[in-house]
Write a structure and sequence with these properties.
Keywords: Membrane, Transmembrane, Transmembrane helix. This is Double Cache domain-containing protein. It holds the Pfam family dCache_3. The protein is an alpha+beta fold. It folds into 3 domains: about 1-35 and about 295-335; about 75-180, 2-Layer Sandwich (Beta-Lactamase); about 195-290, Beta-Lactamase. The protein is built from 9 helices and 11 strands. The strands form 2 sheets. A 6-stranded antiparallel β-sheet has the order 7-8-6-11-10-9, sandwiched between helices. Strand 9 (about 255-260) and strand 10 (about 265-275) form a beta hairpin. Helix 1 packs antiparallel against helix 5 (about 185-195), helix 1 (about 1-70) packs antiparallel against helix 9 (about 290-335) and helix 2 (about 75-85) packs across helix 3. The longest helix is centred in the N-terminal third of the chain and has 71 residues, at about 1-70.
Length: about 325
């Protein structure tokens, strides 16, 4: 009987160890699998944000180009531009452009004579008449030089905009150009609405300071790694996440997972290029992944609970089998006596 009891203990301990080991492996594998799935969902959300940023930028370029084309082909505007009549142009365009600004993110409208001399700024009609912009407004210079519409991103006196430039001409030939500039907030607001990411546009501070002389000086906190935040959906969120390390050497799309104050964030950094393809900054988007964080914690709890359940069930089954085996063995030994 003593031998049977010792054998029973050895089998019991071995079984318990094996059961715990199997349950631990099962729980660990389950946690890894769940974490990989959650990480995949996070990456998918960041990839979607990148796609929306890039497609929205292109869409707004097309939007700006189409608006500029409409104005550039209005006969009454062509006649007034040829006559040098700023008052007539303003009377016809300003009411509509105020609506475009307030509803659709149009923040610039400007006429130029060749090569890039400011004739009229729709929103600031008293500013910059006759100013030569050719040293920094290459889109305008090339539009008038090549007699071909252009679209893209460029910094002007009033700041950075997503622009479209088109030509005005009549029977006597080319007169000049007209451009429409779209605010980056159209892109950032669309991003937030469709993905929940807070977004901000960051541009080379030296470039903006040198060219955008109509802008007020920025707050010091809005300059990060030499880039100035010019627009943002929520700066208070961005400033806690965006660091010089994140914005250093932005040469390609970057997606980062970062923990700040115990919370997980997804960060997307998309390079910002001017119409020539030269890097001038980045669009940064961040989102708090608290839902995924909670799901990850819940997955760990579920895996551990399931492992414990496995241990209890298997241990119960093994105990019953051990009891049956050793009871029968003891009965056989008793009967043989």
């Amino acid at each position: 009987m003593k031998i049977l009891s010792t054998q029973r203990q050895k089998v019991l301990y071995t079984t318990i160890f094996a059961t715990l080991l199997m349950a631990g492996i099962s729980a660990y594998s389950s946690i890894l699998s769940q974490q990989a799935s959650i990480d995949g969902c996070k990456q998918h959300e960041m990839d979607v944000a990148v796609s929306i940023i890039q497609s929205s930028l292109q869409s707004e370029m097309n939007n700006a180009a189409s608006k500029a084309s409409v104005v550039a082909h209005l006969p009454s505007i062509i006649d007034a531009f040829r006559a040098g009549n700023r008052e007539q142009i303003l009377a016809r365009l300003l009411p509509a452009f105020l609506i475009q600004r307030d509803r659709y993110g149009v923040n610039e409208g400007q006429f130029h004579t060749a090569p890039a001399t400011s004739f009229l700024r729709i929103y600031t009609p008293e500013a910059g008449h006759g100013e030569d912009l050719s040293s920094f407004r290459e889109m305008v210079v090339n539009t008038n030089k090549e007699h071909a519409p252009k679209k893209g991103i460029e910094v002007g006196r009033a700041g950075i905009s997503i622009r479209g430039v088109d030509l005005l001409k009549d029977a006597d030939g080319y007169i000049g150009s007209f451009e429409v500039g779209m605010s980056f907030m159209t892109v950032l607001d669309y991003l937030k609405k469709n993905t929940g990411f807070e977004g901000g546009a960051f541009v080379d501070n030296e470039l903006v300071s040198r060219v955008a002389t109509l802008l007020p000086p920025p707050d010091a906190e809005r300059i990060v790694a030499g880039l100035r935040n010019v627009e943002a959906t929520d700066w208070n969120v961005l400033k806690t996440i965006v660091t010089p390390e994140l914005l250093a050497s932005v040469t390609g799309v970057k997606t980062v997972l970062k923990t700040v104050a115990g919370s997980d964030f997804g960060i997307v950094i998309t390079p910002l290029q001017d119409y020539k393809g030269v890097g001038i900054g980045a669009i940064v988007a961040v989102k708090k992944f608290d839902v995924f964080q909670k799901e990850s914690s819940a997955a760990v709890v579920r895996a551990i609970a399931f492992a414990l359940l496995q241990v209890l069930v298997l241990a119960g089954i093994v105990l019953v089998m051990i009891n049956i085996m050793f009871v029968r063995s003891a009965s056989v030994q008793e009967s043989s006596k």
